[in-house]
Structures are given as structure tokens and as C-alpha cells.
Amino acid sequence: MGNRSGATYWAYQVLHVGFVVAPVLAGLDKFTNILTSWSMYLAPAVASNLPVSANVFMRAVGVIEIAAGVIVAVRPKIGGLIVSAWLVAIIINLFLARGFYDIALRDLGLALGALSLSLLSRDCGCKAQA
After folding, report:
1. DSSP secondary structure letter of residue 39
2. Is the Cα dihedral 115, 119, 124, 128 positive or negative?
3. Half-sphere exposure of 40 (CA within 13 A, CB side)
């Protein structure tokens, strides 16, 4: 394993833990709506074209987010790319929804962080490399 005292190793570890925990917690909350009512972020143009209700769709989103967190846990190089792409899809939805530009900007930062995790996992010599 790489240099455990180096900044690269610790940056990787922070991102790795964060991008396991955050998607799993957000995914689980899609079933409880404790943090927020997630369906309010779904663009009306998207919601009106779904074959299911917005709540059912958001539960499916939750399952995908949980799976993404698990993939990050075991294959961070690939998982980071998946989470980054997922966040870009969320950003597009938020722009279509209008009025959530602040959250879209935050998600851009998260997408860049997930991409950074993938890149760091290639070079830091960390155990959970893909």
C-alpha cells in the first residue's frame, strides 16, 4: 500500500469514505424522505414522462445510489466514474427543473470530487484499486 503519511493517500481516503457513505445515505433516504422530499427535485418534464410515480422513481434512484456507493467501496476507480456521471445526470435534471441552480453547482463540485477519487485510485497505491 502507498505512503500512508502522504497527502495523496489521505486525500484518497477522505474521498473514498465520503463517496461510499454519501451515496448510500442519500439512497437510503429516498425510502424515508427524512432529509428532504426528494421528488421535488425531479424536473416536471422528466416526471411527466415516467411510467411510474415520482416517488416510485425516486426509490429506484435510491437503489442505484446505494449500488453506486457499494461499487465505490470495492472498485473506487470505476465507482468514482459512475458516481461522477450520475451527478452530471442529476445536474442536467436540476437545470431542467429550474430553481435548483445552487444545488446543481454543489453537485458539480461533488462530481469533480468523484472524478478525483477515480484518478487518485489509479496513482496512490491504495488497497482498493480497481
Report:
1. G
2. positive
3. 7
Q: Which residue has the cell 478525483?
A: 116
Q: What is the mean pLDDT of residues 85-106?
A: 97
Could you tell me the three cell numbers for 11?
486525500
For residues 44 and 31, give the distance between their C-alpha atoms in angstroms, rounded to a whole number: 20
Contact indicator for 98, 89 with CB cutoff of 8 Å: no
Compute the distance between CA of residue 85 and CA of residue 115 in angstroms, rounded to an integer: 9
The three cell numbers locating residue 21: 457513505
Position 111 pLDDT exceeds 90? yes
- Distance in angstroms (rounded) separating the CA atoms of residues 97 and 115: 25
The three cell numbers locating residue 129? 484499486
